[in-house]
Amino acid sequence: MSTTSATRKIRWGILSTAAIGLKKVIPGMQLGEYVSVDAIASRDLGKAREAASALGIPTAYGSYEELLADPNIDAIYNPLPNHLHVPWTIKAAEAGKHVLCEKPISLTVAEAETLLAARARTGVKIGEAFMVRLHPQWLRVRELLREGRIGELRAVVGFFSYFNVNPGNIRNKVDAGGGALMDIGCYLVQAARFAFGSEPLRVVGCINRDPAMKTDRLTSAILEFAGGAQAVMTCSTQLAPYQRLQFFGAKGRIELEVPVNVAPDRPTRLLIDTGADLFGGGITTEDFAICDQYTLQGDSFSKAILDDTEVPVSVEDAIGNMAAIEAIFRSSETGRWEGVGTPV
């Protein structure tokens, strides 16, 4: 597009009435400077109309195909279940729509790689919706690491859990790409790659599966990076809700208290610890004003379209994340370290 971001907004269509869209993403996007949410689609027209009415969206469609055929829509947000991410992202791209697809963008590396061809063929922009990458607290962590505030980064430690044993929930359906590693472990993998600014060389993983649903309900992994640096992560769909990220160097430690589910209505903070003592005597904090990371994500992706620049999280980056996730799954089966390989 030749039109600059100063003169227009991107007209968005929402592919499905998924809860994450209705409760978090759409309300955040609607606050954006460069975003106009103009349509929403469901396979149930009644659900689409109900969502449109509740959120003030002008147009509701009773099929995904109708939304993709709308010439007044520039971009699609795809929050469908994981196994439908790639098929509908490709359909949207072939309809000439730019696509922001929920994480994880695919079920496998091979599947994600098909998006490269679709992007090249259609000329649209395709990106993965890791909204955290736009939040000021994450950007500040990277800045502090680059400044050497805690010395050389040697370890990243992350934990992310919630409790959900409903067999009807899409996150508990293995064929749909459910389970802890795909749903929330992907954030921990992303965090390590983001912090080190590189890809892991090899991983080792341990998985405990729900005996009935077969999804991984407790997954832990070590990711080894160049020079022996490590990321240690645990995620679970059947533990008390909790999330934390810590970054360790010889001179200190940085901690994100709520790294992923950041509330849009309260300030956030990170902790910087010199390690002066074990009781917090060396801790200082940095506070961040209230902001909505979904607003930031929508605006950043929209500006990338308007200005013809790179999207916040590219398909190549998504493939890198999926390569590490695949290796963790392989390691849980072989019981050995597994190489991650070189992403595209």
What does this structure look like?
With 344 residues, this protein is of the alpha/beta class. 34% of the residues lie in helices and 28% in strands. It has 9 helices and 15 strands. The strands form 2 sheets. Strands 14-13-12-11-7-10-9-8-15 form a 9-stranded mixed sheet. A 6-stranded parallel sheet has the order 3-2-1-4-5-6, with helices on both faces.
Q: Key terms for this structure?
A:
single chain, 9 helices, 28% strand, globular, 34% helix, six-stranded parallel β-sheet, alpha/beta, 344 residues, nine-stranded mixed β-sheet
Q: Concise description?
A:
The chain is α/β, with parallel strands linked by helices and 344 residues long. It has helices at residues 19-29, 45-55, 64-69, 85-94, 109-122, 136-147, 180-196, 293-307, 315-334, and strands at residues 10-15, 35-41, 59-61, 75-78, 98-102, 126-129, 153-163, 202-209, 216-224, 230-236, 238-249, 252-256, 268-273, 283-288, 338-339.
Query: What does the average pLDDT come to?
Result: 95
Rg over C-alpha atoms, rounded to the nearest angstrom = 20 Å
- As a percent range, the share of helical residues equals 25-40%
Counting helices, strands and paired strands, the structural category is alpha/beta
Which ranges are low-confidence, i.e. pLDDT below 50, for 5 or more consecutive residues? 1-6
How many helices? 9
Walk across the major sheet and give the strand order. Answer: 14-13-12-11-7-10-9-8-15
Order of helices and strands: EHEHEHEHEHEHEHEEEEEEEHHE
Major β-sheet annotation: 9 strands, mixed
User: β content, as a range?
Assistant: 25-35%
How would the global form be characterised? globular
N-to-C CA distance: 26 Å
DSSP strand tally: 15
